[in-house]
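Technical note accompanying the year-one report. For the benefit of new consortium partners, we illustrate the data format agreed upon in the data management plan: each record pairs a sequence with a C-alpha cell string. No post-processing was applied to the example shown here.
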Amino acid sequence: MKRRHILPASATAFIIISMAAILTAGGSSQPRLNPETGGAYYDEAASTDFYGYPEISHTVEESAHTEEPKLYSETDVEIIAKIVWAEARGVQTTAEKAAVVWCILNRYDAGTYGDSVEAVATAPGQFAYRKSSPAEPELKELALDVLERWQAEKDGESDVGRTLPADYLFFDGDGVANHFRQHYERAGGTWDWSLQSPYEEDEQ
C-alpha cells in the first residue's frame, strides 16, 4: 500500500498566499494621473509586482523650459548684411551700422511693410538690397547681433542695446552719415544718437 505524502500546514499556507498574490497582482498595475504634472505614475499603494512586492515608482515630468522659436532665419542674416554693406559700410560707428538693421526690424514690427523680415528688407525701392552685394563676415556678425537683441526684446527683455528707437522707420544718407526719421517726409528732426552704444569699439 502506497503512503500518501501530506504537506505540512506551513507549506500549504505559502501556496495559498502565493496564488492569491498572482490573482490580485494584475488588477493593481493601472497608472494613476499625477495632478501636478498630468503625467502617469505608480506608487507603492497602487502597484505591486508579480510576487506582491511594491514596484519602483516612476514619474513622467514635462520639461519646465521650452525654448522660444527664432523670429529670424539665416537667410535674413545674409540679406541684412548685404544691405548694411550697401547702406552703411562707410559710416564711422558700429552703432550707426546697427541702426540700419534696427530700421528694417522697426518696419517689420510696424506691420504694414511686409509679413516677414525678408519681405521688408527686399521690398522694391526701399533698402539697397542686391543679391550681388557681398555679405562680409563682420557685417553678418553685426546683423546676427542685432537680430538676437531684437529677439530678446520680443521675449520680454528690456534695455537690449538698441541704437535706434522703435518709431524710426526711414533714413537717407549724404555720403558720410545716415539720417534716421520717424516720418517719410524730410521735414522735422532726425535721430540724435542719444542712446548709449552697446559696442565697445564705439567707445574708443
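Partners are asked to follow this layout when depositing records. Residues 137-154 form the longest helix (18 residues).
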